[in-house]
Amino acid sequence: MRKLLLGALALVLIAILCGYGLWTEQRPTGHYLSDLRVQLALNDGVPTDNGNLLGIEPLLYPGDYQNLKRLRRKLSAYLEQARAQGLVSEKTIVVLPEHIGTWLWARGEKNELYQVTRLDEAWQWLELSNPIRYGLAMLEAEGDDRRADAHLRMKAAQMASDYQQLFGGLAREFGVTLVAGSIVLPEPYLDKGQLRPGSGALYNSSVVFAGDGSILGAPQRQQYPDSDMRRFIRRGNAYPLQALDTPAGRLGVLVGSDSWYPDNYQALAAQSVNIIANPAFVRGKGSWHGPWRGNRHQPLAAELPLKPGAVSEAEAWQQLTRSGDASGTAAMSVFLRGQFWEVTGEGLGFARRTGFYQSASASQGARLLNVWL
User: Fold this and answer.
1) pLDDT, tens digit, 9 for 90 and up, residues 239-282
2) Considering its fold, how many domains does the chain have in total?
3) 340, 321, 138, 148: which is closest to 229 by C-alpha?
4) Residues 195/225, Cβ–Cβ less than 8 Å
């Protein structure tokens, strides 16, 4: 009798494990309506043969990341509308916001992940749906927040492939140079033109795609990560800033708060950079007009001319970016907007041409920012 009970119990456990395994492989896709409208919130200068900087501040939600087709359709719609207004040419440099690629960790998951209201709940669905991948990633995780590290590490290969397919494809489709915001990957590198994740620490990196969809230069790592990201993202200052040749001129990319530090502008000026793209992300509802939090986790931040709380987040970004760049280059800062569970992305983009800064006009939806070079 005991053997029979043990045998029956074993069969039940096997059935449960098989059922769980089958459940983890199921990825049904629900219906999703997306707002494809975009407003031209800044248009500075007059058309010239020198090209233009075109920033896109999309309004994104978790459902946009359920599959690549949805995200591509939304971003392609923005670029189509920009092209209809004469803002897209072979000399256009498109700038997308920071972390637009990082949220690709959510691609291809169960419907429940997109329907919950809190990020912790989404993480739980991610872990339950990928138990083996998550467990292996935890073994390799680094930093003070190993759980967050593991979530990105377990999806890194898929994220890198999706990122190149999506943004390289958009660059090729519209024939533009495209600064693809940023993506967090472990030790990103290029292998015969393909973006690959390594096995080391996580870095917040930006990749630039040429008009034929190929990658220009190497992934540009963020030099000085700020806020809670520094708990699992390593500083990239061991990897120098680089200048990239584009049809519109010499381009440099400063990721996020790297635009606050004068040394970064000096490094780009030494390479004859005349165009600077700054993909950015400010987290927290109401934070854009709230007190500036500073970058208290970087020793170099002690040299900044502003102190935390002295001005608003908006004023700090504009003042630090303006004071840091004395090179007379054209520059644009573009912010990721939207609602990612309870995490709100805020910010209002701004740009400089011929020494003068202008901010985009505020609007509720997606925004385009254009500066003629």
Assistant:
1) 999 999 999 999 999 999 999 999 999 999 999 999 999 999 99
2) 1
3) 148
4) no
Q: Which residue has the tokens 């083996």?
A: 132
C-alpha 167/C-alpha 107 separation (Å) is: 15
Task: HSE, CB side, 13 Å, CA atoms: give it for residue 258.
Answer: 31
Taking the CA atoms of the chain, what radius of gyration do you get in angstroms?
A: 22
Kindly indicate the confidence band of residue 231, based on its pLDDT and cuts at 50, 70 and 90: confident
The reply to whether 155 falls in a domain is yes
- Tell me if 15 is assigned to some domain: no
**Domain-located, residue 23:** no
Tell me, yes or no, whether 336 lies in a domain.
yes
* CA proximity to 200, closest of 183, 219, 186: 186
CATH code assigned at 61: 3.60.110.10
Residue 167 has what DSSP assignment? I
- Full residue range of the structural domain in which residue 146 is found: 34-372
Sequence length of the chain is 373
**φ, ψ of residue 296 in degrees (nearest 5):** -70, -10
